[in-house]
What we know:
Two copies of one chain form a homodimer. The longest helix of chain A has 14 residues, at 15-28. In chain A, strands 1-3-2 form a three-stranded antiparallel beta sheet. In chain A, β2 and β3 form a beta hairpin. Chain A is built from six helices and three strands. Chain A is of the alpha+beta class. Chains A and B meet through α1, α2, β1, β3 and α5 of A and α1, α2, β1, β3 and α5 of B.
Amino acid sequence: MDNCCTPLFAGVIDEEEATEMAPVLAALGDPVRLRMISMLAAAPEGSVCGCDLEEPLELSQPTVSHHLKVLREAGLIEGERRGRWIHYSVVPERVTEIRDALSPVRALV
Amino acid sequence: MDNCCTPLFAGVIDEEEATEMAPVLAALGDPVRLRMISMLAAAPEGSVCGCDLEEPLELSQPTVSHHLKVLREAGLIEGERRGRWIHYSVVPERVTEIRDALSPVRALV
DNA sequence: CCAATATATTGATCACTGTCAATACATCGT
DNA sequence: ACGATGTATTGACAGTGATCAATATATTGG
């Protein structure tokens, strides 16, 4: 029953925070979606219409739509309708937010 | 057939890079593993033995072991055997690496 | 209104994942 | 060597997710 070390502590993220943060990271945890985001970010205008994603990703239109939805619901991208097309762009604040959430870990080194 | 916008571009991460990066982010995309990592990082010694994780996470030992394995294989944590126990600690370089990978997106704003 | 095109949804299928009980393996103390 | 304890693996199950074909919705141009 003797413990091996100081049990635990404080300063740990609670379950709620973890539950909010995880889906955003999970949305990023897919190669297709990573490429999508990089495509949007690298686009000259900063946005790309969905129709231009199918070909380079070699995926069907429904699959592209599905991934865009996942990214959208994670708040990582947003779509703006321009006539018949929808232009998707990265939400930089959201990316920064999730990136900064990874910083405290580093601060403890 | 008329395109809605400038097709695509350059500076996009290739499939290989996306395939390397995605599993690490996917490993972070789970609330249990996020709490685990924060626990390791917040520990006074910077490490925690696996046996001290089951209770606060309210998970069985095999499940804890499973999540530790996922994080280990993603290179996010590492375990050091000390006698009967294994002390797990965050690999800060890895966290920084994945954090920085999210930076270029911001640079384009 | 109608045809064409972009996007979203539905339904189906297959693969993967989180979880636990049961079991095996490893290490220490006696 | 043996029992106790921490860790890993296996097998099973339920839930989720990636993918596509088919279909529906939305918007524009004629």
